[in-house]
Amino acid sequence: DGGITQSPKYLFRKEGQNVTLSCEQNLNHDAMYWYRQDPGQGLRLIYYSQIVNDFQKGDIAEGYSVSREKKESFPLTVTSAQKNPTAFYLCATSLAGFRNTIYFGEGSWLTVV
Amino acid sequence: DAKTTQPNSMESNEEEPVHLPCNHSTISGTDYIHWYRQLPSQGPEYVIHGLTSNVNNRMASLAIAEDRKSSTLILHRATLRDAAVYYCILRDRSNTGKLIFGQGTTLQVKP
Predict the structure, then answer these.
(1) How far apart are alpha carbons A89 and A106 in whole angstroms?
(2) What span, in angstroms and rounded, lies between the C-alpha atoms of A42 and A36?
(3) Of A97, A103, A109, the CB nearest to B97
(4) I need a labelling partner for A36 at 20 to 30 A (CA). Which of A57, A79, B69, B104 fits?
């Protein structure tokens, strides 16, 4: 099936650990995005990428890192520098350009224990 | 980035029409107006988008004011499954195309 796959759905992290959230798409979309959502709040943009091997910081990039080595994949690493990482993380994709619809994955819950 | 303003919450009765307002007084000429909705613990779902003219699809209608400073999402017959947070978003007109989310409107549908 075509779509966006995020994994894992639920992840627990110990303080001081880095964790990586996976986002894979087979929609042949150029642009990919990572958003963070805290309970009861709207989505905030972490990083986005419009093309392979290129990405830009969003509004809350501190404590996060990404890579875009393949068109299909845009993993997000939550580093130990991110002081409040507990949140719902959403990956999204779209064709290039602002006229196109953005499609979201099902999200990943990250909890620090 | 241009901002949008929506009411925090609205209520509707099942099978009645719902009009969800959005103000975007700083909209630019090439900003598209997008609407998404989100159920708890799920990713947002695209609903509809438009530029100047009113738009219809199988999910909803979008009415855009003539001066484009406001718009209204119309659900013609609300169902319990329409209970969600609805986001009105101006799509970034630069090449990045990223979405900037506000707080959205939480729609409650009463049976």
Answers:
(1) 9
(2) 9
(3) A97
(4) B69
A9 phi/psi in degrees, rounded to 5? -75, -40
Most A CBs within 10 Å, among B39, B98, B101, B105, to test the A interface: B98
Instruction: Assess whether pLDDT exceeds 60 at residue A1.
Output: no
- Reported as a single tens digit per residue, the pLDDT across B48-87 is 999 998 999 999 999 999 999 999 999 999 999 999 999 9
CA distances from residue B18 to A25, A108, B55, B98, B111 in whole angstroms, order as listed: 34, 31, 16, 28, 14
B26 in reach of chain A (CB within 8 A):
no
Burial class from Cβ neighbours inside 10 Å (0-12, 13-18, 19+) for residue B48 reads buried
